[in-house]
Amino acid sequence: MNLLQVRKGQFVYYNNELHKVYSVKTMFKQSVHLYRLRDMSQHLCFAKDIEKYQPKVSDSFIFNKKRYTLNKDRNAQVGDYILITNPDPDYLDHYSLNEIEVVASVESKGVVTTNSNGIKHSEYLLMVPGRFEYSNPIDYKDKSYSNEEYWDENDLLNDDEFSLSIGDVFKKTDIGLEAMVIAIQGDTVFLGGGFQLHQKELMDYGKWEYLYNILDNNISDE
């Protein structure tokens, strides 16, 4: 893809696997920031290395170690995951294309999510747990790959994942706090503010979001 075509929220294939774009930082050389759907691990890449994919009904994929199939035959219930495919937010709502949210309550015309977004039934596809006979697995671009054969739930840090460095700045997703990596000892990472955690936890997009490195002044040449 061309960098100008990349948008936050897009589903894309990178290194043959399904990812989601969570940030585009045009000032950096590896300007596209992704997380892999199957394990939420974070990755940096060039726009030319990804290919866009728009999910549709009956697509099946692993999200955060669990398999789901997209369905529109019934409305979501409390506790269900939904994928927003036709966003039409009101001015008080904050969601966009391909957001994945959890239903907190159900109303006649739509649902309210745990992020306090009111979403109409026509705006989302239901993520039904499991894989069905009619489903279309999209975890890999190359359909010759077997999803279950190549997926290891314990394999969170693979060779294509970027390596942590002193000066990396992360944001804690639940409270928005930013902290910088100040030391790395084996698998233990020390952050400013007194945080000490395992490398796998820091690379989990559901908990921490990579922002930038304070020493990275590379300008994108894409």
Q: What is the β-strand count? A: 18
Q: What is the rounded distance between the termini?
A: 10 Å
Counting H and I runs of at least 4 residues, what is the number of helices? 2
Largest sheet: 8 strands, mixed
Q: Roughly how much helix do the residues carry, as a percent range?
A: under 10%
Strand content: 35-45%
Strand arrangement across the biggest beta sheet: 11-10-9-8-12-7-6-13
- Spell out the helices and strands N to C: EEEEEEEEEEEEEHEEEEHE
* Low-pLDDT residue spans: 150-160, 218-222
Tally the structural domains. 2
Layout: helices, strands, pairs:
Elements lengths: L10 E4 L2 E8 L7 E5 L5 E4 L4 E4 L5 E5 L2 E6 L9 E4 L15 E7 L3 E4 L4 E3 L3 E6 L6 E2 L9 H4 L17 E5 L5 E8 L2 E4 L3 E4 H4 L5 E6 L9
List keywords for this structure.
222 residues, mainly beta, 2 domains, 8-stranded mixed sheet, 5-stranded antiparallel sheet, 2 helices, globular
Structural notes for this entry:
The protein is mainly beta. It has two domains: about 110 residues, no CATH class; about 70 residues. The chain has two helices and 18 strands. It has an eight-stranded mixed beta sheet with strand order 11-10-9-8-12-7-6-13, with no helix packed on it. Strand 6 and strand 7 form a beta hairpin. The protein is globular, with a radius of gyration of 18 Å. The termini are close together. The C terminus is likely disordered.
Give a brief description.
The chain is mainly beta and 222 residues long.
